[in-house]
Amino acid sequence: MKPQDIMAGKSSLWIFGYGSLVWKPDFKYKRSKVGYIQGYKRRFWHGDNFHRGNDELPGRVVTLIEDDDANTWGVAFEVTGTQVEESLKYLNVRETVCGGYITKMVDFFPEGESQSPVQALVYIATADNALYLGPASPEEIGAQIAVCRGKTGHNLEYLLRLAEFMRSSCPQVEDHHLFSIEAAALTMVSYLLAK
């Protein structure tokens, strides 16, 4: 599904971010809300040879994996008017061209609100993508993240900012995958600094 197709006849759109979009949307929006989507878990299973890594040492960034029992917390951004086209144009380059993501519409549940969920666009990297790295132990993923850097910055920054977002904006949520990789990466950095 192409993001342009989703917008036929609509003047606003919610976009759900679960990785770097939670701290760095880089597009104009009307408002944002912290909340979650159901049926997906966040995993550091996607390779990145541009933003957070390179061809020799691809970084690891998050994608969503279907899991009926899981929720993924993040931020949804409402874009309206000209922001819709501008944000989609930007995200199509950032996510689909450089990163190989597909798009889906999902139900987004704003935190602490008893109202009905809103439909939100989400970008998801798939297993058939050439940069898809798949599962690995927290130690392997953490070690990879600790040493990778791309055009946008260190892969470690991506990990630490995502972990900080979860602690500050979603303190009630325990993201074991994220926090175990953070611990492993920080252990690796300590080891590298001690050499």
Describe the structure.
The chain is α+β, with helices and mostly antiparallel strands and 195 residues long. It contains five helices and five strands. It has helices at residues 3-6, 82-99, 138-147, 155-169, 176-194, and strands at residues 12-17, 31-48, 59-80, 101-110, 118-125. A five-stranded mixed beta barrel has the order 1-3-2-4-5. Strand 4 and strand 5 (118-125) form a beta hairpin.
Give me a quick take on this structure.
The protein is of the alpha+beta class and about 200 residues long. Helices cover about 35% and strands about 35% of the residues. The chain has helices at about 5, 80-100, 140-145, 155-170, 175-195; strands spanning about 10-15, 30-50, 60-80, 100-110, 120-125.
Count of beta strands: 5
How far is it from the N-terminal to the C-terminal residue, by CA? 49 Å
Spatial strand order of the main sheet = 1-3-2-4-5
Shape, principal axes of CA atoms: globular
Topology:
Elements: H1 3-6, E1 12-17, E2 31-48, E3 59-80, H2 82-99, E4 101-110, E5 118-125, H3 138-147, H4 155-169, H5 176-194
Parallel strand pairs: 1-5
Antiparallel strand pairs: 1-3, 2-3, 2-4, 4-5
Helix pairs in contact: 3-5, 4-5
Summary keywords:
195 residues; 5 helices; 5 strands; globular
